[in-house]
Design a protein that fits this description.
This protein is mainly alpha-helical. It has helices at about 20-35, 45-50, 55-70, 75-85, 85-105, 110-145, 150-175, 180-200, 215-220, 225-240, 245-255, 260-285, 290-310, 315-350, 355-380, 390-400. The protein is globular. It is a multi-pass membrane protein.
């Protein structure tokens, strides 16, 4: 299978004229996800087979990784506001190198937990720093009349999805050697990112002023439009998380195994890589940010309703998998509308000088919603309810989120 190609748009073909810094940050997102997803899909099996962990302990370790990453995004964002993105990104890359290297040699539970915490906290440093600077640069381009900020954020999303698509393929090839080779390759990718940023990332980026950390959270917690956006984005992420929770259960029921799941994941990734920019271009020309997010949430709800409508029939085999495929397509189309717009909306709602804090808070708040919502979803799926009921309840989540969208 050939790797998806990312073509950075040029001004002469109607695209956005990207600055060298934006090009660096967008390619950084591709490299981040390439290195990360070369390792992550194979971690659970390694912990069970090679390390000998029980199932509950594997789940606990994976949960720790999510918490140390998503839950601490707000910390990384605040540090980027205070010290600038260069030291935060470089520190995050160094921690990720150490974490992957440690994980490759870890054979005891305490060592695995330490490595996983390092890997998660590394992303909590560099991801909000990079995302907030991409958003800030995108707003500057839009203000100068050189293109849409949403298009820049969409390209950032495509780069990340391309890395997430190619990473597991690279990891699968390296797994023929052993898991240590996978981890050391991931560490090597982040070493290249560290070296590249040490050379190319400016010491000081024009227009970015350092801001004191103190007092930022108080204003954020009183920012009702931003909190509404966090809740709506969290509802989208909770729905998207069903690719890993509700969808596998439905595929198992329809096919008798989870073998078709990999093809459905590949379908989602390829849709984003090939269609994200055309969808964003269409939406930017015709929809306001609120309307784009509303349309995306409606598409996501329609995906859940597609499965809910088909579940009472209980079909299996290829025909039984069609509703699941429809769910993946509609969910991915909704994602293409919601994700770039939500990121592009944050600068308009953030306090001056605190874009990193607000970018990190968007991820941390939505991650908390996913954590709590996933526990409720798991209970719902195991409750022995009529087959359509869990999917109808899940469809209500994005529909309810529409009421929380900011009015401006």
């Amino acid at each position: 299978m050939s790797s998806p190609t990312i073509r950075l748009p040029r001004a002469e073909d109607g695209g956005t004229r990207l600055t060298p810094l934006l090009r660096l940050l967008i390619l950084t997102q591709l490299a981040f996800n390439l290195g990360f997803f070369a390792v992550l899909p194979f971690l659970a099996e390694h912990l069970g087979r090679a390390v000998g962990m029980a199932g509950w302990l594997i789940g606990f370790v994976l949960g720790l990784r999510t918490f140390s990453q998503q839950g601490l995004f707000v910390v990384g964002g605040a540090l980027a506001d205070r010290y600038g993105i260069r030291p935060v990104v470089l520190a995050g890359c160094a921690l990720r190198i150490a974490g992957f290297g440690w994980l490759g040699f870890a054979r005891q539970t305490w060592a695995v937990i330490g490595a996983v915490l390092l890997i998660g906290f590394a992303a909590a440093l560099f991801s909000p720093a990079v995302e907030s600077e991409v958003a800030r640069q995108a707003v500057a381009l839009e203000t100068a009349g050189q293109g849409s900020r949403t298009r820049v954020l969409a390209l950032f999303t495509v780069a990340g999805q391309a890395g997430a698509f190619v990473g597991p393929l690279l990891g699968a090839l390296l797994l023929a050697v052993d898991f240590r080779a996978v981890c050391l390759t991931g560490a090597g990718i982040f070493f290249l990112v560290l070296a590249g940023h040490a050379r190319l990332l400016p010491q000081h980026i024009p227009g970015r002023e350092r801001t004191r950390i103190k007092g930022g959270m108080r204003a954020l917690l009183h920012n009702r439009p931003f909190l509404g956006l966090c809740c709506a984005y969290g509802a989208y992420l909770l729905a998207y998380n069903q690719l890993y929770l509700a969808l596998p259960a439905e595929v198992e029921r329809a096919a008798g195994s989870q073998a078709p799941l990999a093809w459905l994941f590949a379908l989602s990734s390829l849709l984003v890589v090939t269609a994200q920019l055309p969808v964003t271009r269409w939406a930017t020309a015709r929809l306001t940010p609120r309307s784009a997010m509303l349309a995306g949430l409606l598409l996501i709800a329609a995906g859940f309703l597609t499965v809910a409508a088909a579940r009472p029939a209980g079909r299996t085999g290829a025909t039984g998998l069609l509703p699941a495929a429809g769910f993946v397509v509609l969910l991915t189309l909704g994602q293409m509308l919601v994700a770039p717009v939500a990121r592009a909306w944050v600068p308009d709602l953030a306090e001056e000088g605190r874009l990193g804090l607000y970018t990190g808070a968007l991820s941390s708040a939505s991650g908390l919603i996913v954590l709590l919502g996933s526990a409720a979803t798991g209970t719902l799926l195991d409750a022995g309810l009529p087959p359509a009921t869990p999917w109808l309840a899940l469809a209500a989540v994005p529909l309810a989120a529409i009421a929380l969208l900011p009015r401006r």
